[in-house]
């Protein structure tokens, strides 16, 4: 009952899972994060070679032209294997922003090859300026000038480029900013989910070809990005949630107390049944959100919000239960289950919170 | 139409034809019986009338094979039929015969049994009730004590059954009885079909919390049942019953009813006299409930997809039962909150389909309390939510 998959999807899923199972070791990951390496360049290169970065890139630009369902499959695996590279971030920015921008032809192949790693920068220090940014793009005698600051950029430390949301005379604008450019001051910091965050201050002139979208197309891209990011974050949450449940089931079968496995106690069995019920319900809703997006249906935006609300609620509950059912071992850094909990918590507020998604869901009521 | 489940045009044509039939066939009394249904059972006579109308149309048992009077509809068409019946407020016929016993008879019955019983089930002329639970045997069904001792060509049945819904309206009962006390409990049970007119049977109806009478206790005192009324082999009753329980769980489409409940919740939000108006949390709780119903609907569709592909959803029907019943309870809670004191008048006569007088409660609250009360039973009958969680733990999680 895994949800219907096409042959191509099954191939992608199997290959990706096999790769991550063989090559994405939890202890290796732990070691490199401790050394401040949030993103492994060899991994990113491997992702590129397997075509993952080109998934949403149109075939005319050398990509696979696949849809939200396929991206969500990878997102789910990112959750399961605790991938710290900014895969869902880059996929969302590529599909929703770069892929519709004026420079798609030159930029998309660079993304597909793994050379350009884009992450969207939206949030600012003040909540009020999140979707109507205080960061400005103005046309001056010297050219386009970007001024302002972006905060709490998840996985920002691994990005080569930021797609920055700014306000211009024509409304919203998306601009592409290399993180290494002069006039960009970046402060990188470790994060609890091992990805490496970043705050950035901008005071620089941009070449015209770095202006990706302006005005209505930029607003449309913001909505597309948010809906896609909600769906992908839900899918990654689902993968981590399922993994937390599986780990818990395995552990309670092995751990013996009072002379019997924990799994034999009904009080625990029913809690794990609840975890499974809620995880499966969430899975159904996320797959439906993917299908709604891929078939361009009117209710796709509403489904994305519904998925975000459900995944956030269930991810939190299941990962908390996973810790409780394990006991003390789950509170240690060397045991995996707490890392699912941390990543799920980070994803809760990525792009939007549960409450914000619920509010938007209500505003999108079918007529 | 729900856009999450796009249906090809020919299904739309099908839906239109169902709608046309329902518009024609449902009298105002039948619709009122449907509207004022507060549990799984509508007014008995209205339900029976509706079954005979459906049977005359050839739709008495859509899920049955065509050779026994089924319609040949696919899963999607059957779903559309149920959905349209619900939307049109058709009453629920007593369904133990069509939905539960029928499939058992087809699977385990002799040719003679099929010939004798199936026509009466589909026409609604025979009304069947289910004799499983006993005062001492609820969730632990296999501990049942009603005995059937072989005496020549007959069994002699002694004991009692309880929670026998609609027994007071039924002329037949299918029963689990003990035929061997010297083996482990499940291995000594048989499945008997018993004519309710047989001497020695007493039916004692009793009111439920909402004041209505649906439930009965049935007593058997030296009831002589022809041995040819054994369904399946002697001592194979547990196998027959397990098949039936799975059918009961898998055959339910909770979201059809839940979407109707969501409509009522939207009504509560829009009603200036509802207590939801001054409750700042109400709209959010309704929205979260709607999202949970969406998730359940998509899960039902996934299961339907695996059924179409020939897979057995097995224990996943337990998942749907737990979630569907608990969501129904949540809707009922939200509705009773919105109705407040206006749901408290108890006026049994308004539930009669021919009642056209005034109601003490406002129209939208007439059945709210009864529905809330009866919603509590949904996580108890057909295998409690705890039994379902146990099934999931054992068969899905391998605990």
Structure characterization notes:
The complex is a heterodimer of chains A (367) and B (399). Chain A is α+β, with helices and mostly antiparallel strands and 367 residues long. Chain A is built from eleven helices and ten strands. In chain A, helix 7 runs antiparallel to helix 8 (266-294), helix 7 packs antiparallel against helix 10 and helix 9 runs antiparallel to helix 11 (354-363). Chain A is globular, with a radius of gyration of 21 Å. The two termini of chain A are 33 Å apart. The mean pLDDT of chain A is 95. Helix content of chain B is 45%, strand content 14%. In chain B, strand 6 and strand 7 (213-226) form a beta hairpin. With 399 residues, chain B is α+β, with helices and mostly antiparallel strands. Chain B has three domains: 9-93, no CATH class; 127-236, Butyryl-CoA Dehydrogenase, subunit A, domain 2; 252-396, Up-down Bundle (Butyryl-CoA Dehydrogenase, subunit A, domain 3), CATH 1.20.140.10. In chain B, helix 8 packs antiparallel against helix 9 (282-308) and helix 10 (316-339) runs antiparallel to helix 12 (385-396). Chains A and B meet through helix 7, helix 8, helix 9 and helix 11 of A and helix 9, helix 10 and helix 12 of B.
Most extensive interface, chain pair and sizes: A-B, 37 and 35 residues
CATH architectural designation of the largest domain in chain A:
Up-down Bundle
CATH topology of the largest domain in chain B: Butyryl-CoA Dehydrogenase, subunit A, domain 3
Q: Give the C-level CATH assignment of the largest domain in chain A.
A: Mainly Alpha
Largest sheet of chain A: 4 strands, mixed
Mean pLDDT of chain A: 95
Radius of gyration of chain B: 22 Å
Helix content of chain B: 40-55%
Distance between the termini of chain A: 33 Å
Mean pLDDT of chain B: 92
Q: Briefly note the CATH topology name of the largest domain in chain A.
A: Butyryl-CoA Dehydrogenase, subunit A, domain 3
Tally of domains of chain B: 3
Number of helices of chain B: 12
Provide the structure class of chain A. Answer: alpha+beta
- The rough form of chain B would be described as globular
The share of residues in extended strands of chain B comes to 5-15%
What does the overall shape of chain A look like? globular
């Amino acid at each position: 009952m895994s949800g219907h998959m096409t042959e191509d999807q099954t191939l992608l899923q199997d290959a990706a899972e096999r790769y991550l199972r063989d090559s994405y070791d939890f202890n290796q990951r732990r070691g490199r994060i401790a050394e401040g390496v949030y993103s492994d360049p060899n991994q990113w290169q491997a992702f590129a070679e397997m075509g993952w970065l080109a998934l949403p890139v149109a075939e005319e630009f050398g990509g696979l032209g696949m849809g939200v369902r396929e991206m969500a499959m990878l997102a789910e695996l990112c959750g399961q294997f605790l991938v710290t590279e900014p895969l869902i971030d880059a996929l969302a920015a590529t599909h929703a922003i770069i892929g519709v921008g004026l420079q798609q032809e030159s930029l998309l192949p660079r993304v597909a090859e793994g050379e350009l790693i884009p992450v969207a920068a939206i949030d600012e220090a003040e909540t009020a300026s999140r979707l109507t940014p205080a960061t400005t793009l103005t046309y001056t005698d010297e050219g386009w000038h970007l001024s302002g600051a972006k905060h709490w950029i998840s996985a920002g430390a691994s990005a080569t480029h930021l797609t920055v949301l700014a306000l211009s005379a024509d409304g919203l604008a998306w601009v592409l900013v290399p993180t290494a450019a002069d006039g960009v001051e970046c402060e990188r910091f470790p994060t609890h989910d091992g990805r490496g965050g970043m705050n950035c201050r901008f005071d620089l002139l941009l070449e015209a070809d770095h202006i990706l979208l302006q005005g209505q197309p930029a607003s449309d891209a913001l909505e597309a990005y948010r809906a896609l990011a909600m769906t992908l974050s839900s899918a990654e949450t689902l993968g981590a949630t399922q993994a937390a449940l599986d780990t818990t089931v395995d552990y309670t079968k092995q751990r013996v107390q009072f002379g019997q496995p924990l799994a034999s106690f009904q009080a625990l069995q029913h809690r794990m049944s609840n975890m499974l019920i809620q995880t499966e319900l969430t899975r159904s809703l996320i797959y439906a959100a993917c299908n709604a997006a891929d078939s361009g249906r009117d209710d796709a935006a509403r489904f994305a919000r519904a998925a975000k609300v459900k995944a956030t609620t269930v991810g939190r509950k299941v990962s908390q239960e996973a810790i409780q059912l394990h006991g003390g071992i789950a509170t240690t850094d060397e045991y995996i289950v707490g890392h699912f909990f941390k990543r799920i918590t980070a994803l809760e507020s990525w792009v939007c919170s549960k409450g914000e998604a619920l509010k938007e869901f209500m505003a999108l009521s079918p007529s | 139409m729900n856009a999450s489940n796009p249906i090809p045009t020919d299904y739309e044509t099908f839906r239109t034809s169902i709608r046309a039939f329902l518009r024609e066939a449902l009298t105002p009394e039948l619709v009122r019986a449907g509207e004022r249904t507060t549990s799984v059972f509508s007014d008995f006579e209205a339900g029976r009338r509706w079954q005979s109308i459906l049977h005359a149309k050839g739709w008495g048992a859509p899920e049955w094979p065509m050779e026994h009077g089924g319609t040949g509809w696919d899963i999607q068409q059957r779903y559309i039929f149920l959905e349209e019946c619900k939307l049109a407020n058709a009453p629920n016929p007593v369904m133990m015969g069509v939905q539960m016993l029928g499939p058992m008879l087809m699977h385990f019955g002799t040719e003679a049994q099929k010939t004798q019983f199936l026509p009466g089930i589909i026409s609604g002329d025979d009304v069947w009730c289910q004799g499983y639970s006993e005062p001492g045997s609820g969730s632990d069904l296999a501990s049942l004590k009603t005995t059937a001792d072989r005496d020549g060509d007959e069994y002699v049945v002694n004991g009692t059954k309880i929670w026998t819904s609609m027994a007071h309206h039924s002329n037949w009962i299918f029963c689990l009885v003990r035929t061997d006390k010297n083996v482990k409990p499940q291995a000594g049970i048989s499945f008997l079909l018993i004519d309710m007119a047989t001497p020695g049977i007493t039916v004692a109806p009793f009111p439920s919390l909402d004041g209505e009478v649906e439930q009965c206790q049935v007593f058997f005192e030296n009831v002589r049942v022809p041995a040819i009324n054994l369904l399946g082999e002697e001592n194979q009753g547990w196998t027959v019953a397990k098949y039936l329980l799975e059918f009961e769980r898998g055959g339910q489409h909770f979201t059809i009813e839940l979407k109707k409940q969501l409509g009522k919740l939207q009504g509560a939000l829009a009603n200036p006299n509802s207590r939801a108006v001054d409750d700042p949390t109400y709209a959010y709780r309704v929205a979260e409930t709607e999202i949970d119903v969406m998730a359940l609907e998509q899960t039902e569709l996934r299961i339907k997809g695996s059924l179409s592909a020939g897979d057995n959803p097995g224990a996943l029907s337990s998942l749907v039962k737990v979630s569907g019943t608990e969501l129904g309870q949540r809707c009922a809670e939200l509705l009773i909150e919105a109705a407040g004191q206006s749901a408290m008048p108890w006026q049994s006569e308004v539930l009669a389909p021919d009642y056209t007088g005034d109601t003490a409660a406002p129209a939208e609250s007439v059945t709210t309390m009864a529905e809330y009360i009866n919603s509590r039973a949904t996580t108890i009958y057909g295998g409690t939510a705890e039994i379902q969680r146990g099934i999931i733990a054992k068969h899905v999680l391998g605990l």
